[in-house]
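subagent[fold] <- orchestrator: predict structure for attached chain, return tokens only, no commentary.
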Amino acid sequence: MKDGRIVKALSGFYYVQSDDHIYACKGRGVFRKQKVTPLVGDFVTFTVTNDEEGYITNVKQRTNELVRPPIVNVTQAVIVMSATKPTFSPLLLDRFLTLVESKQIRPMIVISKRDLLNENEETEVNEYIAYYNEIGYPVHFVSLMNNSDLTAIIQFFKDEVTVLMGQSGVGKSTLLNAINPNFKIETQEISTSLGRGRHTTRHVELWPVHGGLVADTPGFSSLDFDHIEAEELSNCFIEMKRVSHLCKFRRCLHRKEPRCAVKEAVENDTIKTFRYDHYKQFLQEIMDRKPRYSND
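subagent[fold] -> orchestrator:
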């Protein structure tokens, strides 16, 4: 028996790294009966059948799990947004941040294509950056053509399992290729008709990057919050979480309730209106979804 971590899942095989060796493993049939699907990032126990292959016998407990992309035990998310082409979207950024916060994954924000902005456009993006920095999020405003920008990002990968998130065409694969040209991950131009790139990543795989592991994942531009309850949503907005305990009602949703500390903070401009508006939009989505029923 050996212990290892799944670093790639492809064509029915789970590629498990143990020490400095990777084994192509199959899952035991018992997993299907128990409805356990091994995923990239899983810590597993496996039996070696020869120098290259084995069978997974046990999947260890996970600290978190993402459905799209299917990956587990992530410690850090680098959310890559573009300043232009596609246009910078605080709404989409907040969707990613909400998902990451709900999974207790530490986020870092990278805004790419700085070199493509004019002065007025850069000023507008910098105003958003200033607020995200103020509430505690590290933000890197970069040109992927600038080596010093990349050097500032590289240091954050050490000892982390990082997932790159962001819609297609913002530069996730370009960023990885720039950090390590040996990756040679396929990239494509932005679709002029759709205004977004076509994602080129076909499967999830963990790559060794500067002392850590990084997953290059398919780009996507829509997110839902099926796993988040209405009462939990404000905990995913870190500046709201800090004051919500001061609300009059313990289960305050920060909409129409009296003596709401979050609404007071919005009125005082310590919580920005755009963030509160996004919160209300996400809350409405959660409240509008169809109820889920247990099969038990």
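orchestrator: received. Logging for downstream: The chain has eight helices and 15 strands. The chain has three domains: 2-61, 66-216, 230-288.
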